[in-house]
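Quick one, probably user error.
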């Protein structure tokens, strides 16, 4: 299963670890999206910035 992660709020004025997490996921601009494989590491990163992103599950055929 994959996750589609979309940046919906700006990381400006957030804590440095939250800004680094946004960059590590590959998100750059507002409303940009990335697809990542579902793993514990990615889920932990999403948990750190859950107030900044929207997450959708993509089921593979």
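Nope, works fine. Designed sequence:
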């Amino acid at each position: 299963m994959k996750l589609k992660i979309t940046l919906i709020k700006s990381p400006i004025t957030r804590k440095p670890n939250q800004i680094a997490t946004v960059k590590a996921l590959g998100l750059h601009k507002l409303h940009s999206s990335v697809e990542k494989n579902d793993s514990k590491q990615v889920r932990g990163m999403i948990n750190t910035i859950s107030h900044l992103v929207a997450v959708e599950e993509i089921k593979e055929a």
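The chain has a mean pLDDT of 95.
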